[in-house]
Amino acid sequence: MKKIVLSLCxxxxxxxxxxxxxxxxxxxxxxxIVQSAGSIALTGNSSLQGTKExxxxxxxxxxxxxxxxxxxxxxxxxxxxxxxxAGKELSIDCTLEITEGTAKVFWISGSDEAVTLIEAxxxxxxxxxxxxxxxxxxxxxxxxxxxxxLNIE
Length: 153
Known about the structure:
- The chain is α+β, with helices and mostly antiparallel strands and 153 residues long.
- The protein contains 2 helices and 6 strands, in the order ααββββββ.
- It has helices spanning 2-19, 23-39; strands at residues 51-54, 61-79, 89-109, 115-118, 122-129, 135-152.
- The longest helix is centred in the first third of the chain and has 18 residues, at 2-19.
- The two termini are 28 Å apart.
- Residues 1-19 form the signal peptide.
- Keywords: Signal.
């Protein structure tokens, strides 16, 4: 993945130099490529257990799902923007109901350890500030039966 992004950046750099792009235009194009590459890490809609509605970008939207004995991890929202147009703050509201098994909603940033936002039946509401680089919000389940409602703005 890193080789692909690096190759695309070199091609973009060459094209920018030849076309006379400014530094800001180049950085905007680079950010678009990095964000596109980061979108690949998100679980595709056809593989999700529930229904996802995208918001203004890959970092925002709604996700609702009813799980039946599901084990796995779904990466729901996020990306790798260097400069996110909508800013660095995300408002997260989540309702999680666990009937059986385990489930935890998490936020992972860069190479840091994942931060658990909620892992028991209940609600979670907070605003987080995204550092530069990769940031993803997802759910990790083990024999999980229950449901989730997640809204990120």
